[in-house]
Amino acid sequence: MARDGCDVVGMTGMPEAGLARELRLPYASICLSVNRAAGRGGGPISEADIAEVARRGMVHVERLIERFVALG
Question: What angle do CA 62, 55, 44 make, to 5 degrees?
């Protein structure tokens, strides 16, 4: 997939995105990349590593949602 220009491959977001488009509903996804694909990282990754990246990333997600809501 990298050869095709993909930077991120997610495990969620479908069929929601496709259905939203079909219904012409605005749709946005907020996600965190918490681990690299097999063979793309520097070695094994633990559940604790994933939890730590998620914990740090959620601070930014929360801020983004707060600003979005404030804009109305």
Answer: 140
